[in-house]
Amino acid sequence: MRETGWAVSSGIESADVRELQQSAPGPVPQQHHGQAARTGKPPLGARTVKAGLRTAVALCLVTALVHVVLVFLHVAPSNPVSKRYASQVNGWVFPLFEQNWRLFAPDPDSFNRKILARTAHTDPKGSVQVSPWFDLAAVDHSAVDHSAFPSHTSQNLLRRAWTSYVETHGGSDTARSERAVMLQTYLRNIAVDRVASHSDGRTFKFIQLRVVTLPVAAPGTAAGTRPPAPTEDRLLPWWKVTSHGK
Fold first, then answer.
1. Average pLDDT, the chain
2. For 220-241, what is each residue's pLDDT tens digit?
3. What are the pLDDT digits (tens) for 129-145?
4. Which end of the chain has fewer CB atoms < 10 Å from its terminal CB, N or C?
């Protein structure tokens, strides 16, 4: 009987203790950091990184979509949409994303062109100093010769800039359209970058180009014979280099 009474009384006491623990007011036990990370929101830094990644991915997708649409309008047959947005399409495509069919119907050059550049600046005494001619095309040729994987820049950047300049200007050096102005600036910037990279830090305010066109020598021509006479020797006007070096 004693054992039974003790068991009953102890059961009542333990039940009362549990009820008191559940109903007694007091501070809420603190959770550990690991439990908060498992049950709560991620830290602010992680949410910021995720939001930045989503924004970057969205911008990349939008830019790629816009690029595909504008290039499609450029290569597609003339239509009301391409005519209405011709200025926006041309401003995006030219000169870096120009599209043509020369991969399938190549039109190799029948002439060799030497594109030379010289610069001018004013010295502290006020006199104008003009540099010797610098062969820009020779630098590209040296980068291509004996190279198993020549770069597209060395092969075509300067050459295509010049042919595009001729297509928009003809025999005159006066730009008569927005595209002509853009291609003139494009050619000038390429020449300035090439000369500046070989000028040992010397500054200049003006640049001038000279293009000498030579016919391609016939096969089997002896190396010691007289070089072919140039078919064209074109001297462009002086172009001013802007304050930011272009």
1. 79
2. 665 556 666 668 899 999 999 9
3. 999 999 999 998 888 88
4. N
Alpha-carbon gap, residue 127 to 121, rounded angstroms: 8
Residue 48's identity, in one-letter code, is: T
- pTM exceeds 0.85: no
Average pLDDT of span 104-117 = 78
SS3 sequence of the chain? CHHHHHHHHHHHHHHHHHHHHHHCCCCCCCCCHHHHHHHCCCCHHHHHHHHHHHHHHHHHHHHHHHHHHHHHHHHCCCCHHHHHCHHHHHHHHCCCCCCCCCCCCCCCCCEEEEEEEEEEEECCCCCEEECCCEEHHHHHHHHHCCCCCCCHHHHHHHHHHHHHHHHHHCCCCCCCCHHHHHHHHHHHHHHHHHHHHCCCCCCCCEEEEEEEEEECCCCCCCCCCCCCCCCEEEECCCEECCCCCC
Name 76's Cβ contacts closer than 8 Å, sequence gap at least 6.
Answer: 82
| Closest by CA position to 198, among listed 114, 102, 133 | 133
